[in-house]
Amino acid sequence: MYTQAMDTMGKDGGPKAVRSAEDHQLEQRFDARIEAGEFVEPKDWMPDHYRKTLVRQISQHAHSEIVGMLPEGNWITRAPTLKRKAILLAKVQDEGGHGLYLYSAAETLGTSRDQMLEALHAGKAKYSSIFNYPTLTWADVGVIGWLVDGAAIMNQVPICRCSYGPYARAMIRICREESFHQRQGFESLLTMMEKGTDAQRAMVQDAVDRWWWPSIMMFGPPDDQSPNSALSMKWGIKRVSNDELRQRFIDATAEQAKVLGVTLPDPELKWNEERQHYDFGKIDWDEFWRVIAGHGPCNQERLAARVKAWDDGEWVREAALAYARKQELQQQAA
Ligand code: FAQ
Prior knowledge:
Blueprint: H1 3-6, H2 21-35, H3 48-67, H4 69-73, H5 82-107, H6 113-121, H7 138-156, H8 165-195, H9 198-217, H10 229-234, H11 242-260, E1 270-272, E2 277-279, H12 285-295, H13 299-312, H14 314-333
Antiparallel strand pairs: 1-2
Helix pairs in contact: 3-5, 5-8, 7-8, 7-9, 7-11
The structure holds Phenylacetyl coenzyme A.
């Protein structure tokens, strides 16, 4: 049924006047496979818009992992103990690895990593809004683990059942690692809350106050303002809606906050017996749209850091290519 909407779209998303009977048949077969819960694999036929939607989402996801290394990376040299430094180093390295699996998954759709990175560096591709906020204190590192990785897992577990095989498979490993990230963040905060000084407890509360609202924005705009959701849900790219995931996250996190002994900065947050969910206050969607349009507190800094890393790494890429060419020539000669 949704392919009828596709009838009006060409390869570039513009109008497409004529569709061959063969295309129609291929689309019907594709719809039936999705309906039957089969995975779509790289060499299978797929509608252009399905491919485009996947490249958009997977590349944005990959960019989020790579840009997401920056706020926490800021604290590696200042971690309070060797144990915390080792954990943080491993976590930031994991995020880099997630970016690499995801770029590889997106490459199976015919877009090169260089093209995706070019789009990021030119400010044409998005990455998660959350990484445009600063990490001001050590408690921010724990709060990123607890809230940001917590929100990421809530969003990403359903993607393990995404209809596109390479993305779904990448997500299984990523979710396992994110789960460790979330727990280490919670444990680090619990240590400060239970064994720390009053000043440390106040630092944790301050970090929670700053990160709570941006964390619940991570799930994306409300369902009725989410232009991509309808097709993505029908195609099995998204399995659970933005609002439903946000609610699940709030329900789980409100209980965890009690264990930690912190207050979530929302006076309207209250258990609703009838709905069996927490009610919560109004989200400032103007702030969300401002941040994703490039006007958050750290957008310029984040992008500049990525572009600099790319430029500084040019000689490494050249050396790796030269080495690969040399190996190939040696193999041919042998
Ligand atoms: N930030 O129609 P929808 C992590 C954009 S990984 C920026 O609802 P969709 C790991 C959206 O792209 C975190 N932009 O879009 C980590 C669209 O614009 P477009 C990343 C956002 O795709 C932890 C427009 O708004 N996770 O944290 C955001 O159906 C700690 C309309 O929105 C993923 O990427 C946002 N928050 O749903 C690393 C998961 N929300 O593209 C380091 C995979 C929406 O049309 C440290 N992605 N937009 O120009 C998804 O599940 C989906 O893409 C959503 C958005 C749910 C994010």
